[in-house]
C-alpha cells in the first residue's frame, strides 16, 4: 500500500502527529507521489519539535531513498538520494580522504533534511552552512522534477526552506578533501563565560565546539570545555556503534542535583592543563549517535531544545540567559556554545554571525516559560532561534528574527498555492502568511 | 571484511528492499555484486550505491522471470567472474488472491515469477558452482509456502514448489562442496507490507539481510527469519486438516 497511518514524533518526543505516511523506495515512485498527492517530505525526523510533523495530513518519508549514486574524485562532487544519512557518507568516504564539508551533530540526519534546515557544523566559522556546498538538487513538483542550482531563485527558498518547496529527490554535494580519517581533538577547561567566549573568538582550529555547564553559577557561570579538532592520518579502531536505550528513563534521572553533579564531574574529567586525544571521525562529529535512542533518557514526557544565535556585540545577553537557566535548575547536561560565522545559503537559514547557545530542557511544567523568556531575550538583542528546534516562539516574533520571511513566503506560495507542503511548524508560526 | 575478496554475488530481484539491503551489506564486506531485475534505472542506482560503499565491482543487468531469454547473459556474466560464485534469489509476485480467482490465467504468471523462472535460472547456474566446488545459493521463499491458506494459496503453492526445488538443489550441490540455503521470511518491512493490516513483529530488511549472511557462513539449510517464525509455522502446520480447512488465518 502507498499510505500508512502512523504516529510519529519530533526528536524531542514532546510533539507528536498522527497522519498518513508514504515511503517510496525508488525515485520514480517519489515522482509519482509528488504529482498525484503532493505532500511535505520528511527525513530522519531529527528536528526536535514540529518541523517534521504534519498532523492529520500526509507526509512522504525519504527513509528508503538512501543510495549514493556517484562520486567524481576530480571535483569531489557526490551525487546522492535525499534520504542518505550523513553518517553513511562519513563511513563510506572518510577513509578515502573525503568528507561532507558540513556535518551537524548527528549522522542520522539526512541530506534532504540538512538542506531543508540549512544545518551548520563545528566548522561554521570557516566553511559556512550545509546549503553553501550544495551544487545542485532536484525538486519533485506536481508538474514534474525540476533541477535547480544556486543561481535559481528557488534555491535560496529551498535551502533552509523547511521542505516548503517540495520533496528533494537527488542532490549533488561538494565534498572536501581531508588529511586523514581520524580527528585530533584538543580539549581545554574554560573556567567562566568570558574566557570561553574569548577563546572561541581567538580559535583558529578547523572544528570547534564548546560543551557548557548550564548549571554552574557565580564565578563559574558559563564554564565548560572547548574542543578544537583537526583531521589527521592515523590508526584508531573503527567507531563502535549502536547501543540502544532499552526504556524510558524515570523523571528523577535528570533532576537538578543529579545534573549539577554530573556536569561538575564531566568538567573535571579534562585535566586542568588540557589534553589532546585522537578520535574516530564519527565519535567527534556525532558524539551522541553511539546511543541510538538517547532521547529516551529524558523519560516519556520528552524534552525541548532551545537554540539561538545572538550577535557578537550582544554577548552579555548570554550571561543573563545562563543566570536564569542555572537558577531554575531545569537544564540537562546537554548544552553547547559555539561561535558562528556569517555564512548561510537560504532566506530562512538559521546561521548568522554571532554566538550560538543550545540547551536541552526535560519537558517539565516550568520549561515552556523558561524557554519563552529566553526567546524574548534573544529577540531583544536582534538574535534568532533555530526553527529545527523551536517549540515556543510565536508568529509575531518571526519577522524580527527572519527578515526575509515575507519575501520567502511569496516565492513558496507562488510555487505551492494549495499549501500542500505546510507542516505543523509552518502553521504554528504562520511562516507562509503574506501581508 | 570477513569474505574473501574474490567473491561475486548474483542478486536476483534486486529492486526489493530485502535484496537491496543484502546487496549493500555484501558491498560493505567487499564482495562483488551483479544486481538484476526489470527496473534498470533503479538497479543502476543500487549498483552505484554498492560501488561507493565498498564493492570492487557492481553491475546492473536485466532479469525477467517470465522471459528466459534474459537468463543466458546473466550466466555468462557470472562465468566471467573469478573466484567463488554465489546467488540470492528474491523474486516472486503476490497479486491479491481475489484477483487471481477472477482471472485464473494469472496463475501461470505467479508460478513463473515465484518458482519456475528463478528455478530455471538456478538450474543454469548450478553447474558453475559445481565446477568451482563452492559457493552458496540463497533462495528466498516464504512462510506462505508452508501451508496453503485461502488468502494466498496460489502464491503459497508456487513458493512451496520453489522450497522443494531448493531442497533438491541443496542435496545436489552438497556433493561438490557448494551449498544452498532456503530462507523463509515472516513479515518484513517492505513496500509490500507498508500499511497492511494485521502485521506484527515486522523485521527491518537490514536485519533479514544480516541473518541471511550468518546462515550462509554457518551453512544453515533452512532459515526462518526472524527466528520465531519457525515456531509459528510449526504450530500452523500442526493444526489437523479437518480443523484447518475451516479456519481463515
Automatic annotation (TrEMBL), chain A:
One of its GO terms (molecular function) is FAD binding. Keywords: FAD, Flavoprotein. Residues 14-178 form the FAD-binding PCMH-type domain. It comes from the Bacteria. InterPro entries: FAD-bd_PCMH, FAD-bd_PCMH-like_sf, FAD-bd_PCMH_sub2, FAD_lactone_oxidase-like, Oxid_FAD_bind_N. PANTHER family: D-ARABINONO-1,4-LACTONE OXIDASE, L-GULONOLACTONE OXIDASE. Pfam families: FAD_binding_4. This is Decaprenylphospho-beta-D-ribofuranose 2-oxidase. It comes from Aliiruegeria haliotis.
Automatic annotation (TrEMBL), chain B:
Residues 7-190 form the Ketoreductase domain. The keyword Transmembrane does not apply. SMART domains: PKS_KR (SM00822). InterPro entries: KR_dom, NAD(P)-bd_dom_sf, SDR_fam. Keywords: NADP, Oxidoreductase. One of its GO terms (molecular function) is oxidoreductase activity. Pfam families: adh_short. It comes from the Bacteria. Belongs to the short-chain dehydrogenases/reductases (SDR) family. This is Short-subunit dehydrogenase. It comes from Aliiruegeria haliotis. The lineage of its organism: Bacteria, Pseudomonadati, Pseudomonadota, Alphaproteobacteria, Rhodobacterales.
